[in-house]
Design a protein that fits this description.
GO molecular function (chains A, B): pyridoxal phosphate binding; transaminase activity
CATH architecture of the largest domain in chain A: 3-Layer(aba) Sandwich
Oligomer: homodimer
CATH superfamily of the largest domain in chain A: Type I PLP-dependent aspartate aminotransferase-like (Major domain)
Keywords (chains A, B): Aminotransferase, Pyridoxal phosphate, Transferase
Order of helices and strands of chain A: HHEHHEHEHEHEHEEEHHHEHEEEH
Cofactor (chains A, B): pyridoxal 5'-phosphate
Largest interface: A-B, 77 and 77 residues
Distance between the termini of chain A: 52 Å
Helix content of chain A: 25-40%
Radius of gyration of chain A: 21 Å
Number of helices of chain A: 13
Protein name (chains A, B): Aminotransferase
Number of domains of chain A: 2
Organism (chains A, B): Clostridium carboxidivorans P7
Shape of chain A: globular
């Protein structure tokens, strides 16, 4: 019996594929700091749990395929607060940001169509491209340039008649890069001129530091019809396990098409939507405090990384990731070595090897993604383990 | 800007597309009995809500992509009780039965591959076939034969080298047909001989009446590697809104592939899984009582339909649907007419026109699906409305 080509082409997640090594390390009694996955350690606001506990009904029925009215009503003022005016029809609730993106891609792309995307990009995107047989056309960006975009001319060069959309993550997973207003305007004018969509994954919208002038694609004029925003409560409210995401777009025809997919899976879990509606009413202060906490963590990690010889990184403007070039022969081997053979006082570290975040063969081989999702003390210990590990690793490439 | 061919090909759900007519009828003050959708009116067992309310944690984190251990552990004895022995690795928790089927189809089918399926079939299947560009090869079944299967030779004739699987719903949505053990054995031997998969949607497993000898594909020997079971708590425990389903298979390679898709969407909502785990521990008695309630409803509807001149149906063995041939020119027109122009004492009825459940053009044009998911009194009133409506409908085809 044969499986589909599309599933056979799908690779395992680089974020999770080394988990068996971490499990073995734990079995041997080692403590493992998990900086490989974007799972925050911040408490989910109590409002979520209170709302769920107060939910009272006899029958847990199918809810509307586009999302429950309470949640949609709560989301509208959230966007308004950022200068974006959306109506109810512009919003579809999904099973997390991942379903939001999957449905968006299915609505736009046939097999063999081109997607343009800055590289490196979130590894789960790649899995979706593989299973939908979408052709990836990367915009090359580099750690030395803080993963910022090349010129408009460079981007225009790679757009073909088969290009359906440019997908960006802003601020970026895995890079932490927040694009400047100029970069956003450049992408907007390319999309407008070429008649293609911008899919803007903005799940880290609140994770921008140093009072940077962050521009959501929802605020850019004259390209309303081209813009599709992917959103989620996972990181914003530290509620990854709720699986509540959003598709937001003013393009009516797109929304009609994406809604068909929502209908096929009938509805999103209702209790989680009720909790999410409460989260969107959480005082803005909560988001500020979380932002300050992550800024502190980013700075701790930056100071630590800067002190390690041979390590290349720039201080990222947002999200909670670093893409770091290490002085090692192979980042995956190094991560496995850390788990299998190394420890500092019985403790070690797990990171995500970065080659899975690149489309271009051979890129990212000496890079890792570090998620700074632990508290100050654990981060300091983790960075010390990395520093000591780099000194001892047999495959170190510089002295 | 162009949308994908696959999304453009997708039709709207026949179960939901007439909802705007129902809404207009309600705005005019009419009461509408909804027999168009399989949303039971039975209370969700309290165990679900109690478990959710007792859930205590600080952070709602990603849970394992294959499902939480508590739920998987609760599901294993449930199957054992029906004579099916599955291990943890044979089970993947999904966002409802719909995601279970979508992931299964993606794992097996490339564009243009053949799926063999008895017609009529659940309309949402069709949407999935359309968006995945799977070629549908229907096994024709008829209301006059209670939608039972043709001979083995007839089925074998339509299997091609491009056939990846036979998909059945047993007991069936929309037909209510429960296949005999002989039919199941026939399908099993076809699958074994031709080296193809059986995808068996058994979400209505407990909805089989008259002590019929129901055979789950999980109990059939020697074809373990060919069988994939689609399951869900939606109907079993009247928890449609929870969106908890299952993929169950002993084929390790299939499970490895389907798991990749689970990883891409990270996890299923955790609270709902905790509730579902509690549901699987609900005393077996609950399922018996629900079964008796539906059997009563089935019999009420059968008696009513049998008394209507020109109506053709057989008493179904299971699920909670009737596929009924009506003496009308066009079932969709008739359903719209009932909503727009007809009432009995201010009340009317909504059913699902059946052409959307057929692949073959022109079939089902004078058929409807009736879900008997209301209480005795409402069902009696609904049947009376149908009877009176059929008498008055201008497009009636027989006198």
């Amino acid at each position: 019996m044969k499986f589909s080509d599309r599933i056979t082409a799908m690779e395992c997640s680089p974020i999770r594929k080394l988990i068996p090594y971490a499990n073995k390390a734990k079995e041997k009694g080692k403590k493992v700091y998990h900086l490989n996955i974007g799972q925050p350690d911040i408490a989910t606001p109590r409002q979520f749990f209170d709302a769920v506990k107060n939910f009272n009904c006899e029958i847990l029925t199918y809810s509307p395929s586009n999302g429950i009215p309470e949640l949609i009503d709560a989301v509208i003022p959230y966007y308004r607060n950022y200068g974006m005016e959306f109506s109810k029809d512009d919003i579809l609730v999904t099973n997390g940001g991942s379903e939001a993106l999957l449905f968006t891609l299915m609505s736009l792309f046939d097999k063999g169509d081109d997607i343009v995307i800055p590289e490196p990009f979130y590894a789960n995107y790649k899995s979706m491209f593989q299973v939908l047989e979408i052709n990836v056309v990367p915009i090359s960006t580099k750690v030395e340039e803080g993963f910022h975009l090349p010129s408009k001319a460079e981007i225009e060069k790679i757009i073909t008649p088969k290009t359906k959309a440019i997908l960006i993550s802003n601020p970026g997973n895995p890079t932490g890069t927040a694009y400047t207003r100029e970069e956003i305007n450049t992408l907007a004018s390319v999309a407008k001129e070429k008649g293609i969509f911008i899919i803007s994954d903005e799940v880290y919208r609140e994770f921008v530091y140093d009072n940077l002038d962050y521009a959501s694609f929802g605020t850019i004029k004259d390209i309303e019809d081209n813009v599709i925003i992917i959103d989620s409560i996972s990181k914003r409210y530290s509620a990854c396990g709720a699986r509540v995401g959003l598709i937001v777009s003013r393009n009516k025809e797109f929304m009609t098409n994406a809604f068909k997919l929502c209908e096929v899976r009938l509805s999103v879990a209702e209790l989680e939507q009720i909790g999410a509606a409460a989260l969107y009413k959480t005082p803005q202060n909560y988001l500020k405090e979380v932002n300050e906490e992550y800024k502190k963590r980013r700075d701790i990690v930056f100071e630590a990384l800067s002190s390690m010889e041979g390590v290349v990184c720039r201080k990222p403007e947002g999200a909670f990731y670093y893409m770091v070039k290490l002085p090692v022969d192979n980042a995956e081997k190094f991560v496995i070595w850390l788990l299998e053979e190394f420890d500092v006082d019985g403790e070690t570290l797990m990171m995500a090897p970065a080659d899975g975040f690149y489309e271009t063969e051979g890129r990212g081989i000496d890079e890792v993604r570090i998620a700074y999702i632990l508290n100050e003390s654990d981060l300091l210990k983790s960075m010390n383990i990395l520093k000591e590990g780099l000194k001892k690793y047999p495959g170190r490439t510089t002295k």
